[in-house]
Amino acid sequence: MCLSHGAAPPRGTGRRGLPGRFVRRVRPRVRLPCRYRRRPSRRSPWPACREPGGRGRCPAAPGWRGRDRPASAVASRCSGSVARRRDRLEKLATELREQHRIQVHVVEMDLATEHPGQALAAQVAELGLHVTGLVNNAGFATFGPFHQADPDRLRREIAVDVTAVADISRAFIGQLRSAGRGVLVNVASMAAYQPNPRMALYGATKAFVLSLTEALWEESRGTGLRVLALSPGATRTEFFDVVGTPQAAGGTRLASPVDVVRTALAALDRRNPPPSVIAGRMNRVMAFLARRLATRRQVIRAIGRLTAKEA
After folding, report:
1. pLDDT tens-digit profile of 147-205?
2. N or C: which terminal CB in the chain sees fewer CB atoms within 10 Å?
3. CB 134 within 8 Å of CB 166
4. What SS3 state is found at 88?
5. Measured CA angle at 39 (ends 35, 41), to 5 deg
6. What's the rounded Cα separation, in Å, for the pair 311 and 248?
């Protein structure tokens, strides 16, 4: 359908022959038929579905733009979860199946083993699944002076936070690119933006994740694959239970996982998604101040004094 609004004025002039720079150009408002108004964007990275009892098409994604969408909704009709504790995964899978009527596949795997990407890809192939979205969220930290840390724990931290992220991303990026609208989200951290005394290795691993993911964002432009590095601050999860002390948060307020997920989905839903996003307004402000208004030495000393009080 073509809409016409009269003959166009001469090039470079306004409606009455005045130079175009003196005329405020106002786009005419066109009222579309009802069936076109709530259509999801064609560039949306999430598949569309038909909700039970609903009308039209809607993206089935957690925390989608509509406020009435449940924040725990999933991003596709078929989902998979990978972790070491199968009992926890089975419980979560049951909740997702009952609440959202989707298929959920559980894969039990220790990501600290060798070649986790190949092993996971083999298990996914046995299930007959084609991956269109991948979120690398596994990770843990060690709190305390580096020279006092357990070497075996440090090696395991590198395996999970660095090696597994790179290996799994490499194993599935081909499928994600071939999907034409795939999504790859690697979870970094606010710790990626500056050194972190007494969490030195964790900050270094997250800096690796941030750098890797932003480079993949550039390499994947024009393929339809949306790549995003998500950097949350201290979040209300089991992370601090594994660390061994809640003081690793540095006294900051814990964010809700729902808000972190909404930040990621909002970034992916942009017409031109960014390579990375920081979850939380205060975290974004702190990252900006640390990079623009303070020297590297001042930032390191400030974080060192903060963590020294908690050690």
Report:
1. 999 999 999 999 999 999 999 999 999 999 988 889 999 999 999 999 999 999 999 99
2. N
3. no
4. helix
5. 155
6. 8
